[in-house]
Amino acid sequence: MSSMSRFLIIVRLILLLSLDIGAAPAPALAPVPAARTEVDPELTAGFSEGDMIISAEQRNGLRSDNYRWPNRTVYYYINNNIDQPHREQILVGLRKIEASSCLTFQEVTQDQKYYVNITSEPGGCFTAVGFQNRVQQMNLESYPLDEGCYRMGTIMHEMLHALGFYHEQSSADRDEYVRIAFENIEEGKEHNFEKFDNDKVDNFDQEYDYGSVLHYSPYGFSKNGEMTIVPFKEGAEKQMGQRLQMSQWDINKLNMMYKCPQQV
Ligand SMILES: *[C@@H]1O[C@H](CO)[C@@H](O)[C@H](O)[C@H]1NC(C)=O
Ligand SMILES: *[C@@H]1O[C@H](CO)[C@@H](O)[C@H](O)[C@H]1NC(C)=O
Ligand SMILES: [Zn+2]
């Protein structure tokens, strides 16, 4: 990643944080939605495996209902500087999530107060995690179709973050399934390998899923080309980081999180 991109990410994080400070106090009962932004390693220098790279997350679903989109309806706005083919690609991703769940995606109308603002700026692929009850940005840096942030699985990966999921390897019990090889992680990127406590994230009774569209690639944020996430299950590294589609377990978890009346 260029130093310019890094700079932009930092600026953006600072902006997000300061926005948070200015926000109205949450109702007493509601845990304040943390404006946590997931930044994905797909595009960082140091590893590139064509279009079979990247991450993952799940079992890693935020427990609090405050992060769920009301009425299972996600409003979105696609910025005008995103051309028609890229727009279509995004919409196909959203339709695929719809087809696998009870969620509906709707383009914003003028009076909409909360929505996903889909941008295509430098800085990689990133988004706020879960419903934020305000305009929340999802960035898909411009890439040719089916590359980088415009891989179908990456579009769905980012939207799953916005729906309330962290990365699969953030699961509370991930250490039973993978070893995080901190010795191979780029300096300053260690925070991307956090795991969350069981009281914050929910596995929805699904198994650890190496093939989740929300799992990082084994080489995510590697500084030396060695694995940063080493699976205990033999051969699982071939599944990790797939960005083609949601796995069946991804779909199950999404349906459970949103209490879909009928499992799809
Ligand atoms: C909830 O979502 C459904 C399906 O998208 C829609 O028909 C209905 O009008 C929505 N209800 C409210 C209160 O927004
Ligand atoms: C979306 O976000 C970009 C970048 O922060 C901002 O420039 C733009 O005004 C936003 N658009 C909408 C409609 O929220
Ligand atoms: Zn991610």
TrEMBL record:
Catalytic residue positions: E158
Domain named Peptidase M12A: residues: 60-261
Any one of the GO BP annotations: proteolysis
Cofactor note: Binds 1 zinc ion per subunit.
Cofactor(s) required for function per UniProt: Zn(2+)
Classification via InterPro entries: Astacin-like_dom, MetalloPept_cat_dom_sf, Peptidase_M12A, Peptidase_Metallo
Signal peptide per UniProt: 1-23
Domain of life: Eukaryota
Protein's UniProt keywords contain S-adenosyl-L-methionine: no
Enzyme Commission number(s): 3.4.24.-
Name of the top EC class for this enzyme: hydrolase
Annotated binding of Zn(2+), by residue: H157, H161, H167
UniProt entry keywords in alphabetical sequence: Hydrolase, Metal-binding, Metalloprotease, Protease, Signal, Zinc
SUPFAM superfamilies assigned to the protein according to its UniProt record, in alphabetical order: Metalloproteases ('zincins'), catalytic domain (SSF55486)
One term of GO molecular function: metalloendopeptidase activity
Protein name per the record: Metalloendopeptidase
Organism: Drosophila mojavensis
Gene name of the encoded protein: Dmoj\GI22596
